[in-house]
């Protein structure tokens, strides 16, 4: 969606940009996610370490914002994608970007468990780009993704912010504690890209 069209839509919906919540339960209903762009380095990392190239793949994006990454997963890579967010405004904009068979958006608190329409232990890919900041207990949630969300051989793709962002939110994952979040995973791929760190965590087959 062109920036001018997005800005016009924001004005028509009466939406403003962000007040930053301390955790997911406090997301402002008028919050518009401002995830960073999908850079060439990120795309290469995703291609090399995240994507599963088999039929019938299922993905969930947690904190999908306006749907940019979920849209690409579906249209460019063929995943059946569910985008989750707690802000109605984000979901409105994601739906304007386009829903389709195999691409839907819904409001769901991920700390209560996986989306109810998806099977436990049956998801191929979970994506959380700059989302763990807003979780009450990200370590517990990451453990739940490994044990309750993903199928054997599934992947959790995390994008987290580094030390250049002086952010003391409860769910901050930084260079000093990344290792603790990788415990229990079969493999971990890692890329530092300026202020952002990309992690691809895979379960055992």
Key terms:
205 residues; alpha/beta; Rossmann fold; 7-stranded mixed sheet; globular
Explained architecture:
This protein is α/β, with parallel strands linked by helices. The protein has one domain (3-202): Vaccinia Virus protein VP39 (Rossmann fold), CATH 3.40.50.150. 28% of the residues lie in helices and 24% in strands. It is built from six helices and seven strands, in the order H-H-E-H-E-H-E-E-H-E-H-E-E. The protein has helices at residues 3-13, 40-49, 68-77, 88-98, 138-149, 178-181, and strands spanning 58-62, 80-85, 103-107, 123-129, 150-161, 187-193, 196-202. Strands 3-2-1-4-5-7-6 form a seven-stranded mixed β-sheet. It is globular.
Summarize the SSE layout with pairings:
Blueprint: H1 3-13, H2 40-49, E1 58-62, H3 68-77, E2 80-85, H4 88-98, E3 103-107, E4 123-129, H5 138-149, E5 150-161, H6 178-181, E6 187-193, E7 196-202
């Amino acid at each position: 969606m062109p920036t001018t069209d997005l800005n016009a839509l924001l004005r028509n919906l009466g939406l403003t940009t962000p007040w930053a919540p301390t955790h997911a339960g406090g997301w402002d209903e008028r919050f518009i996610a401002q995830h960073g762009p999908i850079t060439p380095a990120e795309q290469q990392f995703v291609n090399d370490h995240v994507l599963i190239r088999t039929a019938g793949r299922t993905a969930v994006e947690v904190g999908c914002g306006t749907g940019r990454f979920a849209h690409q997963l579906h249209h460019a890579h063929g995943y059946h994608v569910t985008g989750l967010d707690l802000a109605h405004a984000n979901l409105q904009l994601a739906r304007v970007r386009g829903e389709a068979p195999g691409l839907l958006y819904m409001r769901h608190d991920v700390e209560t468990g996986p989306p109810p329409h998806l099977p436990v232990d049956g998801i191929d890919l979970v994506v959380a780009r700059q989302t763990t900041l807003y979780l009450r207990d990200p370590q517990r949630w990451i453990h739940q993704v490994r044990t309750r969300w993903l199928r054997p051989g599934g992947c959790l793709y995390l994008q987290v912010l580094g030390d250049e962002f002086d952010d003391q939110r409860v769910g901050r994952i930084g260079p000093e504690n990344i290792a603790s979040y990788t415990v229990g995973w079969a493999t971990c791929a890692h890329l530092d890209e300026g202020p952002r760190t990309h992690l691809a965590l895979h379960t055992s087959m």
